[in-house]
From TrEMBL:
Pfam families: AMP-binding, AMP-binding_C
Annotated AMP-binding enzyme C-terminal domain residues: 395-468
Protein name: Long-chain acyl-CoA synthetase
Family per similarity comment: Belongs to the ATP-dependent AMP-binding enzyme family.
EC class: ligase
GO MF term (any one): long-chain fatty acid-CoA ligase activity
Length: 482
């Protein structure tokens, strides 16, 4: 079957129902045909509850077949779907449900079964593309829904654009691929890549959770061809003993896409040395989607870059007065795309504050090289100014992570009357190490003014399930303890 001529999941499932769609956390397999039947039943069930185009469904679901069903069911009847992090407290969940005006909230398999019960497995009438509305807190304040206009067209009219874009950015193609889900699907990239994989006709293998060796075993068992990961996963896998790393056949991997956080050069180089040139990186945000991308060989030629603007995107680096900066000069990154805009639900002021005309600021500082490749410095909110000099925590963290005894690290700025801020490193070791040894390690790697004034050791550092370091939480805990 030529999947390149069959646009998207719903058409593929109808034409090739026996194709394996999902292998769940327990190893149970679901075919494209059976998945489509369930998706159609839930679509009918949602309409029977009175939901129409533009209405909102919220899902508080762990990774698994039910999360996939809700994603694809809302995606063909013009609904907004809001995945909610099931780690949140009840008040945090209630806030999102109230803010997004969810008419239906799905909390587990029983809810999905109730929606499907007694409903036909045939396609609903008047199909139109839905959209996922992710909630993000950005840098401050309560989380806000990132809402995009609904296309107003059936999914089959929209999918070719996805397929073209993913082909350009990640070399992903329709066919017999196998996609591995390694992160919670309530986050934007894992959720989006699950949906993309089904539109490409791939099999989606859902890992129960991220653990380094079991992930390698899944790659070998299912001959995984593509996956979405984050840098902290790479760091943990590189810490596996050499004999464990050699145990697994990873030759099926063609694309491992990584995003969500800056990847230290040494970590990425270590994975490339192990897996070969399969790492595809993109940089963006929930608001901007994939704004920059870089393929393996371009990265190897320019280690540390996050790439050039993705197709349809333009980018600029501006100073605080809004003037464009030349190559090599760090400033605020601004992007815009011809694919459309977004707004923060119920918050036009926050939407306006994030924009400069048509240009959106993800909140990061970076610079272009002479060839237009972007290099990130850090989040604007995490910038440390010490003695009038800008210091970027991510650069220091990357250097510290190169020490083999370090499992994780967070670098923060702590207020100081004389210097403005002092650099403090909180280190999570996995082998004995001293502060003096770390400073000695940094000598050839960083200028002296970037060295931490204080190094303290921690048993654990707070990271999100997708691997983002929560510097704000680290900073709050450190300052409150003082």
């Amino acid at each position: 079957m030529d999947l390149s001529q069959t646009p998207g999941f719903y058409a593929i499932a109808a034409a090739d129902p026996g194709r394996t769609a999902v292998i769940d956390v327990d190893g149970a397999a679901t075919s494209y045909g059976d998945l489509l039947t369930r998706v159609n039943q839930v679509s009918h069930g949602l309409r029977a509850r009175g939901l129409g185009a533009g209405d909102v469904v919220a899902g508080i679901l762990r990774n698994g077949i039910d999360a996939v069903v809700m994603l694809m069911a809302t995606g063909q009847i013009g609904l907004y779907y809001v995945p909610i992090n099931w780690h949140l407290t009840e008040p945090e969940v209630d806030y999102i449900i109230q803010d997004c005006d969810a008419k239906v909230v799905v909390t587990g398999p029983a809810d999905v079964a109730s929606l499907a019960d007694g409903r036909p497995g045939t396609a609903p009438e008047d199909r139109s593309s839905g959209a996922v509305m992710w909630y993000t807190s950005g840098t401050t304040g309560f989380p806000k829904g990132v809402q995009r206009p609904l296309p107003g067209a059936e999914p089959e009219a929209i999918v070719p654009l996805y397929v073209w874009f993913l082909g350009e950015v990640c070399d992903l193609r329709p066919g017999d691929g196998v996609h591995l889900v390694t992160s919670p699907m309530y986050h934007s990239s894992p959720c989006a890549h699950t949906q993309f994989a089904l539109h490409l006709g791939h099999t989606v293998v859902i890992a129960p959770r991220f653990e380094p060796e079991p992930i390698l075993a899944l790659v070998e068992q299912y001959r995984v061809t593509n996956a979405m990961m984050v840098p902290t996963m790479f760091h943990r896998m590189l810490q596996l003993p050499a004999e464990v790393r050699k145990r697994y056949d990873l030759s099926s991997l063609g694309q491992v896409i990584h995003t969500a956080a800056a990847c230290p050069v040494a970590v990425k180089q270590g994975i490339l040395d192990w897996w070969g040139p399969v790492l595809y990186e993109y940089y963006g945000s929930t608001e901007s989607t994939i704004a920059f991308s870089v393929k393996p060989h371009d990265w190897l030629a320019r280690p540390g870059t996050v790439g050039r603007p993705a197709p349809t995107f333009e980018a600029r680096i501006l100073d605080e007065e809004g003037e464009e900066l030349p190559p090599g000069e760090p400033g605020m990154i601004y992007v815009k795309s011809s694919l459309g805009s977004f707004e923060y639900r119920k918050d036009p002021a926050k939407t306006a504050a994030s924009m400069r005309g048509e240009w959106y600021a993800p909140g990061d500082i970076g610079y272009f090289d002479e060839d237009g490749f972007l290099f990130l410095c850090d989040r604007r909110t995490d910038l440390i100014v010490s003695g009038g000099v800008n210091i970027y925590p991510a650069e220091i963290e990357a250097a510290i992570l190169e020490h083999p005894a370090v499992a994780d690290v967070a670098v923060i700025g702590v207020p100081d009357e004389e210097w403005g801020h002092n650099v403090v490193a909180l280190v999570q070791p996995h082998a004995p190490i001293t502060a003096d040894a770390l400073l000695h390690h940094l000598e050839p790697r960083l200028a002296r003014f970037k060295h931490p004034k204080v190094i303290e050791f921690r048993e654990q550092l707070p990271r999100t399930p997708t691997g983002k370091l929560s510097r704000s939480k680290v900073r709050e805990e450190y300052l409150s303890a003082r």
